[in-house]
Specification:
The complex is a heterodimer. Chain A is of the alpha/beta class. Chain A is 32% helix and 22% strand. Chain A is built from 11 helices and 11 strands. In chain A, the strands form 2 sheets. A 7-stranded mixed sheet of chain A has the order 6-7-8-3-9-10-11, with helices on both faces. The longest helix of chain A has 18 residues. In chain B, strands 6-7-8-3-9-10-12-11 form an 8-stranded mixed sheet, sandwiched between helices. Chain B has a 4-stranded antiparallel sheet with strand order 2-1-4-5. In chain B, helix 3 packs across helix 4 and helix 4 crosses helix 5. The chains are: A alpha/beta, B alpha/beta. Chains A and B meet through helix 7, helix 8, helix 9, helix 10 and helix 11 of A and helix 6, helix 7, helix 8 and helix 9 of B.
Chain lengths: 325, 324
């Protein structure tokens, strides 16, 4: 995969002002997304994964948030600092977003059809009469049975899985080149999650889209992504292709995360590996490595300066750690 | 194995009212004929998806809701027949840990007040002794006694869950119902709390009814596992057996749907079609037949009986026509 990246994020810094001071939710994060690939952004609450997704969409609430530094280029065009009117032309059409909670992403007082037809008329310039069959076709594509009936239902009449499919159908309606999916299956039951993930992978191939999948679930990453970034406290801890990431995780945090997941079929009851301690407060970050306090490989150097990612842009596995595995 | 808890044909129906006179127009059969036994100091894991009745089952067992039918026998005494005074006494032996550590602790009470409340209610020990007991409990769950006078908002989710666990332990219960105790926690913190629960069980001999939607978590802490679907137990077996050799097609689908953090084990999964039917209007026959990949004619006609397909020392109960 050496094709020109579709999206390039360079040294992105996102800050929020709070009463206690300025919080840096994303701190010099760089990555790229190539056409047709799925990039996973994985990490625990507060690691900056969602904020990274929102920054790409130009949806950082401002104030209190702002993109303080760095650039986000999409097909060579700079998105950071773009006026809202221009961002609107890109958002939805070229880059679409799927949110975690499908009930809040849909408007409860309009039917599914009404909402989809709105999008199709606005972004694809269809007439109302053309838009309805197009909407039904999209609903069929995302695996909704009897789409010609479902289109006239309200969101509350649909199950969680169906709602998320509707949201995905809306995201697809303008043939976007990139989809940012923020925890798209977290609110769903496992069997429904399996259905929706399968559909997402299928659609991605069919529509030739790139995708950024933001999730806390390493299992979901392993099953759907080509490459992934592991984030911790606003920084990238590890960035790798999927196979090396799971076969030879290098950052102690990644190793710890993988060890703390109970796996089905392992049999005997036994203690899980544990990452001791808790995530540091973003307002009071140490000068050195942010994981040092919880790390078993900590040495004096770790407390002196932040480690940067090793290796070059084209290496299969990069890690920001002085003493990696 | 001496049974600590025995549940016989437990039912909990919720009436659905409608119309001008608010008459009962339907019943939601949240729990519909569940039976099992739980030995002292053992853990039964209950898994199932949203709306399968697992939380209702846990709450009904603790008598937080009155059952519609059936028996709940704790150490030989039927809770459903106990007087309110007797029930209060028996509650000492059974406690609950809730899912949401943000909602289950009163924001106006300090940690010490929260943990000692059960001791106050049951008038156990003198006030000074209660204070010492709180310190001791905090140590058991891995927190410093210095946090006693702090309020819940000062703690992270994992720490709050530890406070909730300390409260549940205050009365030395014999049974704890843990309703999704780690679902709201991050992975690395989840492991800490799971290990704590496993340790408490080993060291204090407490029996747990561990309710979760997450199969991997349940396997990790349970001796036996029961799988629920639409208010019924469709399969129950020793934890090892149910994961090694799942018999019910629903259990098989549920297991194969769990995303595995190993890219090499991609997609041998059994993806179910459709959604869980409404418990207000379950399909006739086997409740799972509309989604079952192995459905037969019989399945839509008759409710499958519960059959033991295991051995004498490893009972493996499954409710499926495939084995009858």
């Amino acid at each position: 995969m050496s094709s020109e990246p579709l999206l390039r994020v360079t040294d992105l810094v996102v800050e929020f002002s709070t009463e206690q001071g300025v919080v840096r939710a994303v701190d010099r994060v760089s990555f790229e997304v190539r056409p047709n690939e799925t990039l996973g952004i994985v990490g625990e609450s507060g690691c900056g994964k969602t904020v990274t997704g929102l920054a790409i969409m130009g949806l950082i609430p401002s104030p209190p948030g702002r993109i303080a530094a760095g650039s986000i280029t999409f097909q060579g065009r700079e998105l950071a600092g773009l006026p809202e009117s221009e961002m609107r032309a890109i958002r939805g059409r070229d880059i679409a977003m799927v949110f975690q909670e499908p009930m809040t992403a849909l408007n409860p007082v309009f039917t599914v059809g009404n909402q989809m037809i709105d999008v199709l008329r606005r972004y694809r310039g269809l007439t109302r009469r053309q838009a309805r069959p197009a909407a039904i076709e999209l609903l069929a594509k995302v695996g909704i049975p009897a789409p010609d009936k479902r289109i006239d239902e309200y969101p509350h009449q649909l199950s969680g899985g169906m709602r998320q499919r509707v949201v995905i159908a809306m995201a697809l309606s303008c043939d976007p080149k990139l989809i940012v999916a923020d925890e798209p299956t977290t609110a769903l039951d496992v069997t429904t999650q399996a259905q929706v993930l399968e559909q997402i992978v299928k659609l991605q191939q069919e529509f030739q889209m790139a995708m950024i999948l933001v999730t806390h679930d390493l299992g979901v990453v392993a099953e759907t992504c080509h490459r992934a970034i592991v984030m911790y406290c606003g920084r990238i801890a590890e960035k790798a292709e999927i196979e090396p990431l799971f076969a030879h995780p290098r950052h102690p945090y990644t190793v710890g995360l993988l060890g703390s997941i109970p796996r089905v079929g392992e049999g005997e009851k036994q203690d899980l590996a544990v990452i001791p301690g808790i995530v540091p407060d973003l307002l009071h970050l140490p000068p050195g490595c942010r994981f040092a306090d919880r790390c078993s490989r900590r040495q004096a150097r770790c407390d002196e300066a932040l480690p940067e990612l090793d290796g070059g842009e084209d290496s299969r596995s990069r890690v920001a750690c002085y003493f990696p595995y | 194995m001496t049974a600590l808890l025995q549940v016989n044909e437990l039912k909990k129906y919720f009436p659905v009212r409608g119309g001008l006179l608010r008459r009962v127009v339907a019943q939601v059969k949240a729990v519909d004929g569940v039976s099992f036994t739980l030995g002292a100091g053992r853990t039964l894991g209950l898994v199932g998806e949203s709306g399968c009745g697992k939380s209702t089952l846990g709450r009904t067992i603790l008598q937080l809701q009155k059952p519609t039918g059936g028996q709940i026998i704790l150490e030989g005494e039927d809770l459903t027949a106990a007087s309110p005074e007797r029930l209060l006494e028996m509650r000492r032996d059974m406690q609950i840990i809730f899912q949401d550590p943000f909602a289950s602790l009163s924001p106006r009470r300090t940690v010490a007040q929260t943990i000692r409340e059960p001791l106050d209610v049951h008038r156990i020990g003198r006030p000074a002794e209660r204070g010492r007991r709180v310190e001791e409990l905090l140590q058991v769950v891995g927190m410093r006694p210095g946090v006693m006078d702090r309020y819940p908002h000062e703690f992270s989710g994992g720490q709050r869950q530890r406070i909730g666990i300390a409260r549940a332990l205050a009365l030395n219960p014999k049974l704890i119902v843990a309703d999704e105790p780690v679902s709201a926690l991050d992975v690395s913190v989840r492991a800490q709390v799971l290990n704590l629960i496993a340790r408490l069980q080993r060291e204090h001999g407490i029996a747990f009814l561990f309710i979760s939607h997450d199969l991997s978590v349940v396997e990790h802490v349970s001796d036996h596992v029961g799988v629920m679907y639409l208010g019924r137990l469709v399969e129950m077996a020793p934890a090892k057996e149910i994961y090694r050799d799942p018999r019910h097609p629903y259990t098989q689908a549920l297991l194969s749907a769990v995303p595995v953090p190993d890219p090499k084990r991609k997609s041998q999964r059994m993806v179910l079609s459709g959604d869980v039917p409404s418990p207000m209007n379950p399909p006739p026959g086997c409740p799972f037949h509309k989604r079952c990949p192995k459905v037969m004619d019989l399945c839509s006609k008759a409710m499958p009986p519960v059959i033991d397909v295991g051995s004498a020392d490893k009972p493996h109960r499954v409710a499926c026509h495939l084995y009858s």
